[in-house]
Amino acid sequence: MNATLVVDASYCQTTKVGAYAFWFASSEQKFPGKGVFKNPLPDNVCAEMQGIVNALYIAFRCTGMRKGDKLVILTDCEPAIQAFTGLRKLFKEPEVKAKRVFDEMAEHSGVDIEFRHVKAHTTRTEARFLANAACDRIARQEMKYARHRHLCNSLRTIIDEAASRV
Question: How many domains does the chain have?
Answer without folding.
Answer: 1
